[in-house]
């Protein structure tokens, strides 16, 4: 048995992957299962002490992650393999630790992050594929992803995204900086990759809902620009469903040497 120096505190960062179908979201809730709760329980067993984790981005009900980053503090230390092999032995099948790294006490999974990237996957076909239920969003009407890209280009930059925030959003400001929005298509699958310094509640799904109207030809691409200028969520289209949304990356300064996850949603590549 390894002896632990109880006076020594370690900070550990982890890469975490999960399927959000069975969970009310990342954050621990009293009334519904969350991703945070079983992760903390598993880590507490390995650390032999209560563990509280902090994440790079809190995902909503039904939203998945391949690039979530968390950190926690513990008294003493454990071998790096303990957090992968040990924690995964105690985790449910739909949550997995994919890497671990000791970090300095200045590192914070949320506040040290300089960007987050989400990917939304749409299956654009006449009928849905049953085996992808909950993993991609199905849209029957034909979509022109090039028109969607033209509309998405208006989102890039530092802007007020009030038209794309949920009514329950508690952020102090709707100003966010979107670094890039890239659309691509692989057969029936359309991918929307959005990178920003931070996101508002339901921001990505509200953006997708708007782009769907553009892709169907029911709105011109400039509709996105006009909607941004309204600063009014009530004028925007419906929120897209959560099943196609993935947190795929949290960006950090290179000096921190935080690993990048090599996992991608359903094996589809991320450029």
In words, what does this structure look like?
- With 271 residues, the protein is α+β, with helices and mostly antiparallel strands.
- It folds into 2 domains: 9-112, Pseudouridine synthase I, catalytic domain, N-terminal subdomain (Alpha-Beta Plaits); 115-248, 2-Layer Sandwich (Alpha-Beta Plaits).
- It has helices spanning 36-47, 80-90, 145-152, 203-216, 222-230; strands spanning 9-18, 54-55, 64-75, 95-103, 115-124, 137-139, 157-160, 175-186, 189-196, 245-251.
- α1 crosses α2 (80-90) and α3 (145-152) crosses α4 (203-216).
- The protein is globular and about 60 Å long.
Secondary structure: elements and pairs:
Blueprint: E1 9-18, H1 36-47, E2 54-55, E3 64-75, H2 80-90, E4 95-103, E5 115-124, E6 137-139, H3 145-152, E7 157-160, E8 175-186, E9 189-196, H4 203-216, H5 222-230, E10 245-251
Parallel strand pairs: 3-10, 5-6
Antiparallel strand pairs: 1-3, 1-4, 2-3, 5-9, 5-10, 7-8, 8-9
CATH homologous superfamily designation of the largest domain: Pseudouridine synthase I, catalytic domain, C-terminal subdomain
Q: How many DSSP E strands?
A: 10
Alpha-carbon Rg, integer: 20 Å
**Residue-averaged pLDDT:** 93
CATH uppermost class of the largest domain: Alpha Beta
Q: What gross morphology would you assign?
A: globular
- The structure class reads alpha+beta
Order of helices and strands: EHEEHEEEHEEEHHE
Q: What's the helix count?
A: 5
How would you concisely characterize the structure shown here?
The chain is an alpha+beta fold.
């Amino acid at each position: 048995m390894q002896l632990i120096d109880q006076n020594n505190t370690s900070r550990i960062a982890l890469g975490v992957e999960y399927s959000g179908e069975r969970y009310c979201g990342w954050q621990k809730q009293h009334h519904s299962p969350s991703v945070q709760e079983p992760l903390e329980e598993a880590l507490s067993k390995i650390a032999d002490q209560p563990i509280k984790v902090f994440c790079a981005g809190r995902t909503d009900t039904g939203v998945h992650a391949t690039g979530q980053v968390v950190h926690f503090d513990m008294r003493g230390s454990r071998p790096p393999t303990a957090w992968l092999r040990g924690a995964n032995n105690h985790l449910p099948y739909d949550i997995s630790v994919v890497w671990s790294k000791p970090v300095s006490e200045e590192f914070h999974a949320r506040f040290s992050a300089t960007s987050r990237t989400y990917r939304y996957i749409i299956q654009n076909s006449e009928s849905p594929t049953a085996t992808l239920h909950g993993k991609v969003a199905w849209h029957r009407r034909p979509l022109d992803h090039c028109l969607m890209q033209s509309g998405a280009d208006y989102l890039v930059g530092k802007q007020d995204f009030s038209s794309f925030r949920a009514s329950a959003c508690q952020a102090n400001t709707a100003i966010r900086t979107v670094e890039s929005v890239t659309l691509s298509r692989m057969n029936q699958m359309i991918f929307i990759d959005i990178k920003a310094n931070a996101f508002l509640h339901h921001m990505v799904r509200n953006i997708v809902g708007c782009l769907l109207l553009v892709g169907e030809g029911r709105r011109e691409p400039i509709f996105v620009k006009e909607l941004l200028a309204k600063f009014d969520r009530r004028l925007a289209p419906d929120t897209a469903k959560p099943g196609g949304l993935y947190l795929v990356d949290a960006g950090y300064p290179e000096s921190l040497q935080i690993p990048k996850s090599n996992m991608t949603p359903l094996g589809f590549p991320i450029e």
